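Co-fold these.
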Amino acid sequence: MSHYEVIVVGAGPAGIAAATAAARSGSRVLLLDENPAPGGQIWRVGRSMLKGQSEGEAAKNHALKRLRDSGASFLFGYSVYDAPAAGELRAICESGEAADCPVWGEPHAVSLRYEKLILATGARERFLPFPGWTLPGVFGPGGLQALVKGGFDVKGKRIVVAGSGPLLLAVAAHLRGYGAEVVCVAEQAPLAQMLPFAISLWSHPAKILQGIQYRAALGSAPFHLGCWPVAALADIAGGKLTGVQLTDGRRTWTEDCDLVACGYHLVPNTELASLLGCAIEHGLVKVDEEQRTSVAHVYCAGEPTGIGGLDAALVQGEIAGLASAGKPTRSLQGRRVAERKFARRLEAAFRIRPELRSLAQPDTLVCRCEDVTYAALEKRSGWTDAKLQTRCGMGPCQGRICSAALETLFGWKQISVRPPLMPVPVSALVYSESQPVNLKENQ
Amino acid sequence: MKNLDVVIIGAGIVGCACARELSLAGLRVGVVEGKSPGCGATAAGMGHLVVMDDSPAQLALTHYSRSVWSELMAELPGSVEYEACGTIWVAADEEEMAEVHNKSRICAAAGVQASVLGPAELSKAEPHLRGGLAGGLLVPDDGVVYPPAAADFFLQEAVQAGAELLQGSEAVFASQGMVRLANGTKLTAGRILLAAGADCSLLPGLPIRRRKGHLLITDRYPGFVNHQLVELGYLKSAHSTESDSVAFNVQPRRTGQLLIGSSRQFDNDDSRAETKIVGQMLERALAYMPGLGQLSGLRLWTGFRAATPDKLPLIGPAGALTGEVADPSLWLVAGFEGLGITNAPGAARLLADQMLSRTSVIDPQPFLPNRFAAQEAVYA
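Predicted complex below.
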C-alpha cells in the first residue's frame, strides 16, 4: 500500500495548483487523474489552432512546469472507485495501459493511503433531454471538443453549438479552428439575464478579452441569445442527423447540420465527496475559507465547490494545497472571495429557463443506460421510487448523466452514492490487505 | 380522523401483499409508508423464490408461498420480471453431495420437484462454474422476481380494491387501535398490522434482530448464469446464528445482470458496505465461478434482514408480545429474514385467514407470535 501525506484527486487546474502548492511546501504528494496526462477538461492536451489561445497556452505550460518541478508524484490513467476506509482510496486503471500498470493490458487496482486528501474532481456537462438528443451526431460541447482534440475530424462539418454556458463560445471557436463550419451558437439564457454578468466582467479584463477573442474566432456565425433547440432531426431511416429545430420562444426554425453540440453548463462532480461523507449543500461540496470539507483532513477545490471556471480553480487549488501542508493562505483570500462572487454571477447568468423542462416528449429517453422514457418517470413520486420502479439511474453510469436532468425536470435530488464510483471488474472489489502495490516513483 | 378495518404499517413486499389480500377480502385497508413502497429490505434483497427445508414449518410455508406465486404468474406485469430459472444447490465435495441426496429425499416427500445433478450435468447446466465440483440439486420450479416491482404490483391491486396508501410520513405511534403519523395524521382501526421488517421501533422487544447483508450487481451478461446458484455450504453459513458468514449465491436477472452475494452479519447497524466482508464474499464467489472476476461490477449495497431466533416469521396477533398491557389490536407480519420475497404472498394468505377466521391451507401454528411469549423477557 502506497502512503502519501497528501493525495490530490483530479489533475485539472485546481488539482495541479493544489499538488504544486502542497509539494512545494514540503509534503509528499501524489496527484492522480483518470486521464493519461494532467490538464483536466479545460487544459486537455491536444493541438490548439487558435492564435488567441497563446496566452492560455502559456499559463497552462507554466503551471505544468511548476508542477513537474514541485516534486509531486503522479499516477495518471487511474480512476478512484472506492474509499473503503478513512485514509484509504482504491483506484484502478482498467485498460491496463497506464505507465504504472505492471502487466500491459491487464486491469490494475491499487490501494492508496493518505493523511490529507484534496478533491479536485471538476465538473461534467449537464444534458437535458429533448426529442432526438440521443441520435448519433448529437454531442455535448465539451465531449465533442475532447473528441476533436483526440483526432476526430470535423473539417467541413456543419455544426450547431447550443445549450448554455461560457463553454459554448469557446467550443465553437475551437471547432472552427479545426475547420468545422459553425452554423450558429444558441445560448438559452436571454440577454436580460446575461447583462449583469457581462457588465460585471469589466472587473475581469482578461475574461472579457478571452470572450472577445472567441467571438471574433466565430467569424460570421450568428450567436443567438435566448434561443434553444427543441428537437434534433434525423433522415427517414432515423440514423443520420439532418438538422436541429431551434426556437427563441416566438418562432421556431430548422438549421441543417451534420453535428449538434448541446450541453447546459456544468454539473459538479461530487460523487467521491459524497462517498467520503462530505456535507453537500445545494449540490455543492461545502468548504470553509481554506477549502476544508466537513470531513476531517479532506479538502475540496474547484468546480465541486461551485462552478467558477479556471481562475477560481487555480486559487482554490493553491489554498487547499497550502492549507493541507499547514501553510498560511491569507495572501490568496482576496482572490478567493472575488472568484466566489464571479461564480455566483456565472450561476445567475446561465440559469436554466423553465421552457427547457417541457421539451421532452412522453417517448423521449431520459435515462440512456436503462432506456427509461419521460412518460415512465412522470408517474413516479421521487428518485427512490423512480429507481426502484423504472431502474432510472441504475445502469453503468449510475445516474451521472440523468441525475442532473431529473433535478431540472422534476426537482429530484440524487440521494445516495454507492461504491464503486464507476463500473470496475468484480475482482477489483476483492480487497485483501496483503495485495502488493508497485507504484513507480516518478518524481 | 380516518377509521379503517386494518392499518398496515410498512409498504414492503410483505405489507403490500397483505394489503392486497385483505382489500380483496373486502376490508377497508390503509397502508402507511414513511419513505417509498418497497424501498427497504424489499429493494435490498435478491428476489429469489425458493423452497427451503430448514424445518418442516419453513418447508411448508416456502412451498405454499411458491405455489401462490405460480398462481399469480399469469397476472404479474412484465416489470416483475418473473423468471422460472430454478435453483441449483451446488455441492463442492462428497460430504455436500450426501446433503444433496438428503435434500432430494425431503423434496420428494414434500412433493417438490427436484433432480440430482452429477458433475458433468452440473457443468453442462452452468459452464462457468469451476471444474471439480461434486454435483448439485436442481429445483426447477424455483424462480426469481424483481421485488420492488412485485411489491408495487401487490400495492396497485390493493389500491384498486379500495386500499389507501398514506405515503411520506412514518408512523410514530401504534397502540390500542390508534396510529399517529409523524405529520400529525391520526388513524383508527380495529387492527394494526406491523409489517415493518427489522424496524421494531413501534413495538420494542420483539424477538427480531437485524442481520446485515451485502450484494453486488454487475453489468449485463445474458447467458453467463442460467439458474440461481447457491452453494450447499450456504446452509451451514445461514444456519449459524451468531458469527459473520459469507456464501456463494449468484442470481441471473432477466436484464442479463447478475446479483452476487451473500453475507450475513448480526449486530451491525452500519449501512455502509464493508471492505472486509465484501472481499470475503466476492472471494467465495470467485472460488466457485472464477469468470465472475472479469465482469463489470456496477453497484454494491447493503440491507437488513429481520431475523427471529427460530428462523420462522411472526404471522398473527401480537398477543403477549405487546408487553404488560394487552393490546388486542396489534398484529404482526415480520421476521422473514432472507425469505420475505418468497413468503410474502403465502404469509399474506395465512394472515388474512386468521383475521377473517378462514381455514388455512397450511398449519399457521408454527408462525404465531405468541410462541415467543414465554421467552419474551429474554429479548426485551
